[in-house]
Amino acid sequence: MAFYTLRLRDDDVVEMLDQRKLPLEIIYVELKTYKDVYGAIKDMLVRGAPAIGVSAAFGLYLGAKSLLDLPEVNNYETFKKKFFDIAGFMFSARPTAVNLGWAVDRIKKLVGKEGKAGEKGREEDGSGSGLKDIVDLIRAESLKIYDEDIEINKKMGHYGAALLKDGFNVLTHCNAGALATAGYGTALGVIRAAVSQNKKISVISDETRPFLQGARLTTWELMEDGISVTLIADNSAGLLMRKGKIDAVIVGADRIASNGDVANKIGTYQVAVLAKENNIPFYVAAPLSTIDINLESGDEIPIEERDINEVVTVFGKRIAPENAKALNYAFDVTPNRYVSAIITEKGILYPDYKKSIADAFDK
Ligand code: MRU
Description:
Layout: E1 6-8, E2 14-17, E3 28-31, H1 34-42, H2 49-67, H3 76-91, H4 98-111, H5 116-122, H6 129-160, E4 169-172, H7 187-196, E5 202-206, H8 213-224, E6 229-232, H9 237-242, E7 248-251, E8 255-257, E9 262-265, H10 268-277, E10 282-285, E11 291-292, H11 309-312, E12 313-314, E13 317-318, E14 331-334, E15 341-344, E16 347-349, H12 353-362
Parallel strand pairs: 4-5, 4-7, 5-6, 7-10, 8-11, 10-15
Antiparallel strand pairs: 1-2, 2-3, 8-9, 9-14, 12-13, 15-16
5-S-methyl-1-O-phosphono-5-thio-D-ribulose is lined by residues 47-50, 97, 174, 176, 180-181, 186, 213, 251-254, 264-265, 330.
């Protein structure tokens, strides 16, 4: 792969591929503060649930490091309070992808009293060396989250590839690829793994209005890797399914409830219903960090509403009458009855999801 989605450089700058500009421009942006990272998540310069989680972790490191420059931050309690404020701010960047909260909580735990970094903080003697140790631990943890994400995606690829037979035409919605993660991808990771086993897989990519993750990102990313991909308008999936041109659907997820209901990019639900109607398996590939075990069902998942300008304009050009009313929900929830299987790093989960998800967390 000739590109990378994001990385934390040795000089503590977060570098991100600006996904708003793809595929027409390949621009890496340098982010130097936690506020820059927050803005990048909010404005969707980086997007995709796991990539948002990794970005937040890097952002929290930049935030923690900036606290060392504040004279009033000279003891563990003050550091912790200010750091938790930054964590709360980062958490608010986008509401639906649970990986954001998951990464923030993981680092908060590290800094909290019971965490490894918390221990270091209590050793602080006023010289600042204990706080510097905490910040170093946060850096190491954020890089661990990054590395683990790629490793997990490869595991999902390994399990999920078994579901895709040689010669399959696979429909995907949005972008659940390397661009939505630290690398390799969730749904596209499964496709990559199948292709690497020399299976002939052809991908059909929904364009995914309004942000066009399918047209701009999935199509670009797969073409970069030499994987066969055909772009369709979102409203074409039903026709292709009826014509027998789709053998399986595979998508990622932003949050999965403990009963297997799946929140993913707006439009996923209608694809899932069409797949069931046409007896086509509908697979979801997602790491366990995307499963919100605290939620009984998808009804509890917060759905982000974005600026309607994303709907009434395309690349800054108005496509609807001035003052037209519009709605811009960014995600929908697919009830578990439409989900044939959930591919995780712990293996493939099947209904009854309440049980199989709980078992995966216990493994
Ligand atoms: O609004 P986005 O682009 O962040 O939405 C992304 C999706 O819905 C992806 O399908 C999901 O995060 C899975 S990414 C591996």
